[in-house]
Structure formats: C-alpha cells, structure tokens
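User: Quick one: structure for sequence A, then sequence B.

Assistant: Sequence A:
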Amino acid sequence: MARTQERLAGYRQRFDARFAAYFDELGERIGAPALSRFTPRCLELLRDQSLRGGKRLRVALLHEAARLATDEEDLPGLDAAALSIELLQTHGLVHDDIIDDAPVRRGGPSIYYAYREEFPGRERTALGLAVLAGDLAAFLSLQVLLDAEVPAELRQAMIGVQLGAASDAVVGQVIDLERDFCPLPDEELLHTVTEYKSARYSILAPLRLGLLAAGEDPAPYDERLRRYALLVGIYEQMRDDYLDLFGDESVTGKSAGTDIREGRRTYTVRALLTGTSGRERAMVESALGDRGCTGETIGRIRELAGERGIERSLRSDMRRYAEAASAEAAGWRPWWRAEPVAFFEALPLWSVDRTH
C-alpha cells in the first residue's frame, strides 16, 4: 500500500506543476478582448479551483494505464490527456456546485458562491457567469487535445474518448437528479447513476486514454476495463456517501448529513430507509430534504445506523466491491505488464480505507 501511495503522490506533484504552468499561459492564448474584466476573473477562478486540492487519481489511472502496455516514459499525448481529464473534472465540479447550491469546494468557496459574493443582489449574473465558467472548462478540455502534438489518428481517438465521457457525465447528472424523485431507488438505479455520472469519465476514460497514448487499441479489452471502472466507481461513490454521514468533519471539510438535508437518495440513505422501520424510519424520512435538520437529529441517525448494523453493512459492501475490483485487475496479468497490473490490483484496497 505504501508503494501505491508513493506513486499517487508522485503523479500529483508532477501534474500540479504542469497544471499551474498551463493556466499561467492560458490568459495569453484565450484570445479575450483587452477591455474585458470578467474574462480574466473567470480564468482566475478556474485556476484557483483546479489547483486547489484533489488527489489526481484520474491522472494516476491515465499514466498507469499507459504503463500496462509500455515501459516508455513521457509518451506524446499523455500530458495533454491529463490536462483534458482534469479540465473536464473542473467543469463537472463547477456545475455540480451550481446544481447542489454548494458554497464550499475543496476548502474554499465554490465558483458559484465566489460570484454570488462579488455580485450581491444580482443572482442571475452570478449564476450565468458560473455556468459559463464551467462551460469554458469543458471546451478547454477538448482544445488541449486538439493542440496535442501527436498523430492525427491518435488525436481523433482521444477526442472521441473525451467527447463520449463528457456526454455520459452530463447524462449521469440528469439521472442523478431523477434519482431523487424516487422515494426508494433500487440498487440498479444507484449503480447506473454511478456508472454514468462518475465511473465512465473518471475511471474508464483515463484507462482508455492511457492505452491509446501507449499505442494500444483499448477496444479488445473494453469489457474488462468497463467492469473494473464500474466496480471502482461503485465503491468510491459508496465511500463518498458513507463519509457524508459518518466521516470526520475536520477531515472531510463538510458538515455531516448534507445528503440527508438535501434529500439525496444515496447509497447510505437507501441503506437507512431499508434498514429501519416504524418511528425510526419516519425520523429518517422527516429529515430527508429538511435543510433545517439539526445536528442533533443527524447525530441520532448516525447512532441509529450503528445500533441497527447499517454502518457495518455499508462498510462491508464497500470492501466487497473494492475486493471485486482488485480481483478484476488481477485477471489482467496474461495481457499486460506485471507492475502496473499490481498497481491497479492494490489501488481499490488502498482507496476504500481512505478517510477523505
């Protein structure tokens, strides 16, 4: 596990320096008129949010996927693919914060709330600028691939991956909102939301891009890659949902019970509804969607989850999906290089135990 963490830290350090350099050059390349004051501020906010925190797991997946097929370093196209992945992530976070009305992102103000503070009393202006900032990040994620110094065939294939990932993520956001209209979504719906909203663009796309950069056609292996991506996506989403209620607020940086207050039908909320009955379930249901729900009530729901074995069951489910993802990666050994396969095998078991 220490080796996995070391490699992740190395990828993050190198990429963050590259990401900062990208934004340093972006102002000159964006082509905005000199008279515009709002455009430089938009780029400043995108830069701040993009460089603030983040584990860069997508970047690590990209590089390790390339290593599955080759031991060459600094492959053409990898830097552009990494920038594209993280710019698309920034786009998603900006729009997520608008949809969720979230004031905080990674320990600082969300772009939406930064604009609200700058334009008090002009809600439509703040909303419009935040939407446009997210849109710009999405278009920039494709532009970096168009500018990549790689053969035209590879460039086209990479753009195709990112276009598909972006549209899947938007569809995922749509059905994520639809999910909350179901009083009790079944597990299949939750898995589908996870697959579209996060697994396809956060895990599957980096795997495909890394293999493409290494000169490997991912198509023959797509079924294996999809299985791994979905399993990782499920336990990661389960973990995020779990930490929303059971995490240490000083570590997660968020108030406990946000999903309950917002009425989100997450994996954890579903477990609470199916694992309780009578007055206990009524308490959970009354808290759902109540933004004024007190910390005392959230604390009681946490206690209830412990008493009824719900917390233990959630942890067991996360572990089960992480172990399944690890086993899936272990089955890659006949096709790919042993060291990166070992990375993909170890990653789920390391990740599922993280506290933030």
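Sequence B:
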Amino acid sequence: METGNDHAALSQAEAQGVRYATELEGHVKWLDSITGAALGVLAVASGIYTYLGVSSLLDDNGALSFFAAVSYSVAVSVGIFVFWSYLMRLLPAVRTMGSRIGLMISMAIGSAAIVAMSSWLNAAALAGAAAVEQHLARTVQSYQSSLEEANLIAVSAQGLERDVARVRQSFEDLGEQEANGDLSGLAGRGAVFRVLNQKSDELRSLEAQIASQQPLVTAAFSEGNAILSRMRALTVEPGPVEARSIEFSEEAVRLAGIITQLRQLSVAPLVARAAQDLSASVVLPELDGRTGEARGEQQSTISSVLVVLGQRADTLRTAAEAVIAMPPPNDTTYTPISTADAVIKYAENFAPSWAGAIAIDLLPAVLVLILAVTQSAIRSGKERAGVGETLTLSELRAALMAIREMDDARLIAHGSPDPAATDRPKTAEVQPITPKGKAG
C-alpha cells in the first residue's frame, strides 16, 4: 500500500513538473519570435552610434572616410548580432559545468571586445561634445591659475619698490646729516656726502625703473583676464564644438603670450643685481679735508658708510631673492582633443553616458542568462518524468506516423501484398438463398 501511495505521489509531482516545464516552453517559444528582432534593433542602434563615434575620429569628410565609417559600424552591428545569437542558442542548451564555464569565459572575452570596439565610440557619440567642453573648461582653469601666479610674482616684485625707496631714503638722510656736519664733523658737501649722494641717485634710478613697470603689469593682467572671459564664453556657446575649439586655441596662444610677458615684467632679478652692485661698485672720492685729522675723520666715516651700505644691500638682495624663489607658474599649453579621447580622459564625469553606451551593447547578456535559467528550470521539471509522459500530442502523432511507415516498409520488404490493401476490410461473399420446400 505504501508503495502505491509513493508511486501516486511521485506521479502527481511528475505531472506538475511536466506542466511547469510545458508552460515555460510555451513562453520561451513566444519570446523566440521577438528575440531576433530585438537583438537586431540593439545591434543596429549600436552600429549607428559607432558610426557617429568613428566619424568624429576621421579628419577627412570625403567619400572614402564615409564608407570607412559605414563599413566599421556595419561590422560592429553584425558582430554583435552574431555573437549574442550564438550565446543565446548555445549557453542555455549545454548541461555540463565545464561547458557552461567555457561559454561564460567566451562571453566575458566577447563582451570586453565589444566594449573595446564599440562602447567607447558610442560614449563618444553620446557625450563627446560635452567631454570636449569639459576639456576646454579644465584648460581655462589651468590658464587662470598660471595667469594669477605670474601676476602675483610680478606684483610681489613691484613691492620691492618700497624696499628700494626705504634704503634710498636712509642714504638721503645720512647725506643731510653729513651736510650739517653730524657724521664726520665737517659740515658741507665733501667726500662722505658725495658717496652717500652717489648711492642715493642709483637707488632713485632703480626706483623709477620699477615704478615704470607697474602700468605694464596692470595692463597685461587686465588683458589676460579679458582673454580668459572670452575663453570661458567659448566653452558654453551654442554651435559645433570643433569650430569653438579652433577659436579657443587662438585665444589660448594669446593668453600664453600674456603670461610670458608677465613673467618677464618681474623686476626681482633687476633688484637683486642692483643690490649686489650697490656695495660692490663704490667710487670713493678723494678726501678733501684740510688737515690730516679731518681726512682721517672722513676716511673713518666713509668706512662706516660702506658697512651700512653693505647691510642695506644684503637686506635688499634678500627681499629680491625671496621673490625670485617663488615657484613659477606652470607651463600651460592647450592641446586639441577629439571627442573619443575626451570621453576617455574625463570618463569619471560622464558615468551615465558610459553606462548607456555599454548597456546597449551588453544588454543581451542579461537575456542569455535569463534563457539559461529558464532552460535549466525546464529540464528540472522534466527530469523526473518518463519520456512518454513528456510527449506532446503533435509529437505523439509524429511517432505513430513513423511507426506506421516502418511497418509498411517491413511488409514490403518481406514480399507482402500492398499495405494499403491489407488495411481495407474484406468483402463478404454473397450466398444464394434457397426457398423452403424446394429441392436443390
């Protein structure tokens, strides 16, 4: 009794599994009718965006470049369609783990190849113009930093004018003291006064030279900012980005010249050389004291002045060297870039475009996995049932017809009558009826 119940329960489970598998097979059969068309649409769409990406890489717009781009995009579309068609048919059908792993590895390699030959070009078509604009904006930022750094160095060098004026003023004050007789004790404009006046004139000339550079620095910085404003406008103006890139390149060349000019307007090297010459090149006048004692006082005062002169020169040279030691602005050069290179260089800023470009090529991989899971479920539903229980009505009819054809062929081979005649019912013989009472 228990065996019968177990057999009945097993038969019921087998029947449910068969119905489940049959239902899934019906869905798969219906989906197969639209899968090819859907896969073709995806492949064609990818090919179109690939064509746009390839066209952006070709410099020539002639017929040869057109056919080259079309050929490449058609090859990509066919490759994608054939690759995913193979996997949709084969991966769900294999049953061994080794075969599945092999096909999965093949799918991974093929997906990487599709990304390499198509997806990045699709991304270039989707976000290429925006990526080039991003490149222009980054370049503007680099030029702005270089311009500000060059101007900072030039302005800092102009600040040395105050240091020069302070040293000059100190020598002029010492000269006035010498004229009043407060230094060497000899009032008038003698040898000590001439030394102090000599250095005062040198510093006054240097101060005037520094002051003459200020308008040039201001004008160069203003012009550089105007060029930057124009470059910023070019990054967001409507219209083809290629034409804007050409004008942007021209403005970048002008701005690079302005930055170089600002670097050359720095007077720090000039001040450093003047400070070195301030103590090294002193023309000592002839002592004009009337007595030996007076000339000795003058010599002692001139020696003290030379010590002070050396100290002031060291202070001025230190201030100039501090400006010279400031890090120079980075050398910024605008390099034109294609849309394909731009989306790769700034990929982190265009993640949605990259996701869409890759998804349009690799979406069939999801369909392949869905079919693999479904086919596995179909096999699982049928594996506990016998072959006879899984036959459909059409399969049963085909089997009966095959059996009948085999029987007919066997009868003919043994020399039997026409099989068609044996199937016809035999006609009964008609016997004559004899009336009763009459002899034969």
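Residues 6-10, 421-440 have pLDDT under 50 and may be disordered. Residues 192 and 302 are 6 Å apart (CA to CA).

User: Thanks, that's what I needed.
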